[in-house]
Every structure is written in C-alpha cells, then in structure tokens.
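Each field is set out underneath.
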Amino acid sequence: MLLPTYIDFSRQSATFTDAGGGEERLALPADAAKLAEEFKAVEIDYRSDLLTLHLPAGGTVVAELGLQDPDDVGGRPVVYLDQNQWSTLAAVHFGLRDVPAETANAARRMLALGTSGEIVLPISAGHAIETGPQFSHRRVALATTMLEGSRGWQMRHPVRVRAVEFDRVVGDGRLAGTEHAVFTRTPDVLWTRRLYPGPSIPIPPLDRLFPRLTDLASYAATMRNPDALADQRNASDGWIAQWTRISEFLEREQAGADRTYEVTFGAVLADLAEDLLLRAPVEQLTRWFDESARTDVAAMPYMSRTMWVMFARLRNRTGSWQRNDFVDLMFLPCASAYADVVIGERRTIADLRRATLCPAGAELATGLVEGLPLIEARLA
C-alpha cells in the first residue's frame, strides 16, 4: 500500500512510498500552496506516529500525528502553561532576555519534557490572542517554542468545552459524545470557527492528513500575523465594560456574598444565553434555571470554576477588570478543570485555589520553579 511520506509544498508534490521502497509522486491541488507560507515540507513517519515540519526560516519542528486516536495522551501528565510561562520558555530557548538561573533551569527542563513527549504541553487559542503585543522576532521565537513544546497538542476552545458541559444537562448529549476530549490532536477545535482555509483532498490518508497539517499551519499563521485575531482582542473591550458595570452596581448596592453570587450566576448564564438556546428551548431552560441549574453548574468542572473566579473578582472591591482578564478567566479555569498541572499568573491561580467546592482538577502553581516538582512527582 502506498502512503504519503514526504510532502514538498515548495514544489507542490507528495511522495508516496510502499513497504518495498517503491515511490510515486502526486501533484497537490492548487489550494495546498497556502501551506507553503508556514511549512516548506513535511515528513510523515507512520511507525512512530510523528510529523517533521520544515519551517520556511529554517529548522524543524516535530509534531505528533495522532490519526488513529487523536485524544489518547498515553497516560502522560497534561501540563497547561499560561502565556507568561511560555514566554519564559521562549526567552530561555532563544536567549531573548536574562532569566534567573533557577527559573531558566526549570524552563529548560519543562521544554525538554515537552519536546521529548514525556508530558503533554497543549497550546490554546488564548495563547495566540495574548501574543498580540509581541514584536516580530519575539513572535517567531514564541511561536516556534510553542510548536516544539506542544508537539501539536491543543486545548479545545473553552466555548466548545462549556457547550459540552451544558449539553450533558440541558441538551441531547450528541455534542458531548463527539467533543468529549479537552486536550486533543483533533483538527478544528482550537478556535470557535475555522480561521485558515485548507485543501480538500478525497484520497486516503490525505483526507485525514491534510486537516491535521492545516490545523498546525493555522496556529503558526495566527502567531505570525497579529491581525488574524484582531476581532478576538477587540471583544475584550465590551467584556470589560460589562463586568465593570456589574461591579459598580454591586458596589452601590453594598451587596453581600449571597447577593453577589446570585448576580454572578445570573450574569454568567445571561452571557451564555445564545449558546444555551442552541442546547434547549426557552421553556426548558427557564425550568432548569429555577429547579436544578445551581446544582448542575456546581458539578461542571469548567463552569463551576468560571462561576467561582467571576464571583471572587466581583467580591474584590479593590480590583479592576483588565484586558488580560478576558483570556485568563476563560482559559485558566478551563485548563485547571481538566489538566493535571496548570502554571499561571498569580491572581487567577489564587482565585482558583480557593475554589474548593468545585470538582477535583489540576494541581496549581504560579511559576515554573513551583510547578516543575509537581510534574516530576507525577512522572516518578
């Protein structure tokens, strides 16, 4: 059986090889040319289930193929790093700035564990959104570090994750049956919509291989081009304004903890009204809200944490809503609900540590030096 083993995007051709070493070349469709912007060529090793991506600027990145079971982490710890932690890894990896020795050593060890495949270091849409302020050479260094460290593993977008959690209680369960894995190598789950067009090739196994390559190229493209996610960053302004108004309302009312939680609960679900209406009709949602919504949400790994951190922020009258909160309060609660270890920024990690009534989730740390021993213990 002939299988594609080498794809040369610069020449728009794929080399197929059989078990006896025979080769055959196939011309790629014209719409595959766009992938050449991110990868010069790709080598496919089916025995080791790996892709070797040749980058236009030189160098290679290894990614896991995952065609058989894209959700199987193989018993490895899943470690979610906040953007600031990835920035430290990139700074050490490429010598971008001075990093304290202990942190630098932890960064090298963390990246080595990721690139060797001993742990899973998933990337997320939140990382791409938060990369906006980076300059060109720093963007390239950060994108390359993330591609190397993640080996193509991704976190399903939190909007998709919460849809699954709600589908289990107010939907028909079909979504929960198809999008159950939060950390995956499945294409087209990193974003809420497809950002990057890819070729359609109805020839096995190219029909499954190219969506995987397009997905990896999509992340590389958005990291390279900050304008690709301008609408995502602009969305944070309206979000900040909304929660600032709610904070001011509670301050004027001098609301206590119970009242603050009721407002938080209602505001979060109102924010998700459009998503919820996709799961069930208004009448059913109204009954659910009155009868079992609080109990059901408290049992949801991700949404229970969302409720808690939003409540904690509203209770903190001295705090203010910042642009980076838009990403942190969406992605870190999701990661902490389903990963094994999460290393993030201090304020959100502190809030998550106090969310003791939520279902069990990740071990939490505020830096690489604190987080590395948690990972080493799991490996041991």
